[in-house]
Amino acid sequence: MFYLFFIIAVVFGLMLFIAWFSPRSPGFRRITGGIYLLLTLGLVVYPLFTTVWFLTTDAGLRGASPSAFAFSLHRSLSAKLPGYIDRRIESKIATTLNRSQITATESPVYGAFFYLQATERLQQQWLRDPSLCKQAPAVTGVRAINASLRLMLDPSHAHWVRDYWGDDYLTEPNCFYRMLLIGCLTAHHNLTGETAHLPLLRTVVADLVSDIDSSPVGLIDDYPSQCFPCDVACCVAMIERAARALGEDRSEWARQAFLRMMRLYPDGLPPYTADAATGVALSPSRGCTNGFFFTYSPFLAPELSRKWYQPFVREFWQESALAAGWREFSKEGNSPPFSFDPDSGPVFAGFGTAATGLGLGCTRAHGDHRRAGMLGAEMLAAAVPLPGGTLLVPRLVSDLDHAPYFAEISILHQLSLAPAEPVTSTATRVPLPPCAWYILSIEATVLALLLFICSRLLQPPGPRRQA
After folding, report:
1. What is the pTM of this model?
2. pLDDT-based confidence at 426, cuts 50/70/90?
3. Where are the domains of the chain?
4. Are 300 and 233 in contact (CB under 8 A)?
5. HSE-up of 37 (CA within 13 Å, CB side)?
6. Spatial contact of 296 and 232, defined as CB atoms under 8 Å apart
C-alpha cells in the first residue's frame, strides 16, 4: 500500500513538472491543473474547512463533554467496518499470523473492543441529548456492532492467543484477551438486547473473577510471565459492567479488587510491567499504559482516581512552544527524550505518541477540560479529515494490511469518554495549543501555493509571438 501511494505521488509530481515547463502544451496543462485543483479541494480545502468548523463549533471537542465530531466519526467508521470485518474473517488470514506480529494479531480484536465500547458510550450520551446526532448510534452502527462481535468471537482471531495459552485460553489467566471478550459481549448485549451470548459471558466472568481472587496480590498475566497492571484495572472494570448486564452486583467486588491491586502502588502510578505473583515492578510507570489506566480508574474508585491523577499530571504532562501532551516517561527519571517501541510509538522530545493519544480519554474521563481541549484540538488538526470521513494521518499510521481503521477507532474511543457529570457550556473551551496553530498555518500556506499553481496551469496560454 505504501508503494502504491509513493508511485501515485511520483506520477503526479512528474505531471506537474512537465506541465509547468511546457507552456505550449495547453491541453496537458489544463488537464494537470484540473487534477491538481481536485486534489487541492479534497486534500487541503476540505480538511482545513472541516478542522476549523469543528474547532469553532464543537464545544465537546474543545473540552471534556460529548463531542459532535465523535458522532460524525462514528457514522463514518460504522459504514466501513462491516465490509472490512467480513473480508478479514472470510480470508482466514489471522490463522497465518504468528504472535510476534503484534499489530496484525492484537489490533483487529482491540479495535472491535474500542468500537463497541465507544458506541455504547455515545448511545448513552445520545439518549440524554438526542440533538447530538439525527439517529441513535445503536441504529446507524447496527451492522458494525454485529460485525465487531463476529470478529471478536471468530476462532481464527484467537489463533495467536492459543499460541500463548493453548486450547484452554479461555480458562487460563489470559487477562488481555478475556478482558476484550467480556467488554465486547457486554457492550453488544447493552446495544442490541441480544441474549444468545450471555451464557458465555457468565462463564468467562466467573473464571476471571476466580483467577483474580486466587492471585496473591490481585494481578494476573496477559501472556505467560507478562503482567501489565493497567490491563488488570481495565479487566476489573469490564467485569463490573458485565455483572450489571447479567443482573448481578459486583460493584463492591470490583472496588476491592482494584484497591487490593493498587495497595502495591500507593502513589497511584502503576508500573508498565510487574510480577503477577508478587506485584514487584519490573519496569517504571509509563505514559502509554497510564492513559489507559486512568481511563477506567474513575469508574472504580472516583475519589482516589482524582487524587492519583495529580501526580500523573505533575510527572507526565508537558507543554512546550511546540505542543502539549503526555510524556512516555516521568520527568523525574533519566529517560532519553527520543525513543521508540511498539507500545509507545515514536517518542519525540519526551512526548509519547501512544501516551498522548490514549491520554486524551483519561483527561475527558476526569473532567479535565483544559487538557482535554488542548489534546482534542491537536488531534483534529493533525488528523487531516478527508471527504468521506477518513482521517488521513491515523489511517496512514495504522497497519494498512490488517487493521487499517485501528487508529481512527482508537480516537473514537477516546472522544466517546466524558465525565460522570458532563459540562456542555462553551465556557469550558481553552485556547488552541501552538501545534494546532502551526498545522493550520501550514495548511493555509499550502492552499495558497496550490491555488496559485492551479491558476497558472488553467489560464489560457498567451498569444504566440510572430517570427
Report:
1. 0.92
2. very low
3. 27-290+370-458
4. yes
5. 13
6. no
CB atoms within 10 A of CB 181: 28
Instruction: Kindly give the pairing relationship between strand 317-319 and strand 345-348.
Output: unpaired
Cell numbers that stand for 226 in this block = 507478562
Distance between CA atoms of residues 149 and 413, nearest Å? 16
Mean of pLDDT values over 371-379: 96
Distance (Å, rounded) from C-alpha 316 to C-alpha 458? 52
All residues at 6 or more sequence positions from 89 whose CB lies less than 8 Å from its CB, including other chains? 150, 151, 154, 156, 157
Query: What type of residue sits at position 461?
Result: P
Residue 246 contacts residue 201 (beta carbons within 8 Å):
yes
C-alpha cell at 7: 508511485
Q: Dihedral, CA atoms, 222, 119, 300, 210, nearest 10 degrees?
A: -40
